[in-house]
Amino acid sequence: MKINILLCDIFEDIMPFEDISYVSMIQTAFNAVRPNITYEIFEAFARDLPVSIEENATYLIPGSRFEAWSDSPWLNELRTFIQELHREQAKIIGFGFGHQVIAEALGGRVEKTITGNGLGVRTSTFSDDSVATLFRKKTLQLFYFHQEQVVIPPPESKIFVSSPFCPIDGLTVNKHIITLQGHPEYTEQYIQFLLRKKMTPEISRIKALKTLQQDTNEKELITYILHFLQV
Q1: Mind listing the domains of the chain with CATH numbers?
Q2: 2-13, pLDDT tens digit by residue?
Q3: Residue 208 — φ and ψ, nearest 5°?
Q4: Is 110 left (phi over 0), alpha (psi -120 to 50) or beta?
């Protein structure tokens, strides 16, 4: 299996570890489920995109501090490439910003949250009981760190997981696209670092830190993603 990671940010100024990068966090999360994955990295934020679509590759669009609706040239190119991937029925995964920019590219809409930032661990509910039964607690618990969310899903998509805070927490399109607002690639150590970096209001930070006592099930989620995409 091969994953082409289309990086939209490298977070170099907010990575607390000398020996861990954002790419390596992504790889660690997937390797915990499927150890024989091959990766190719493209710096989409630097206008570096694949020159062609590989038939047997999966395309992963992860997090970013950019806004999914931005008119930046690199984002216009990325949205166009997402549309090309979709037309070819290529397999696509989106996390965080990736979830948002895929929705924007395919006709959805993203806005800043009106109820505050989504921080810490959140529990979301699956729309399909048959999916819920694949998870030990029948719910999804992931790390979140976002100011925007999808408010209108793309016409062809289905909402497969939601929460009161973020009704469109996860989307699928046919059997080739799956996206989530949460971050299964994040670790508790990393989210703690982000929250303690004083990037958010004090009250929000304290509340979010308390949620980290909850278990997360990113490994179950990645297992499901690979099953859903049949890769």
Answers
A1: 2-113+148-187+218-229 (3.40.50.880)
A2: 999 999 999 888
A3: -65, -40
A4: beta
Describe the crossing of helices 218-229 and 22-31 by its angle, rounded to 10 degrees: 80
Cα–Cα distance between 15 and 10 in angstroms, integer?
9
Tokens 């895929």 locate to: 102
106/101 Cα distance (integer angstroms): 9
Of 220, 179, 221, whose CA–CA distance to 95 is shortest? 179
Give pLDDT tens digits for 36-54: 999 999 999 999 999 999 9
Residues facing 22 on adjacent strands: none
What phi and psi, each to the nearest 5 degrees, are found at residue 2? -125, 135
Contact indicator for 1, 44 with CB cutoff of 8 Å:
no
In this structure, the strands spanning 2-7 and 57-61 are parallel
Q: If DSSP codes are grouped into helix, strand and coil, which group holds residue 58?
A: strand
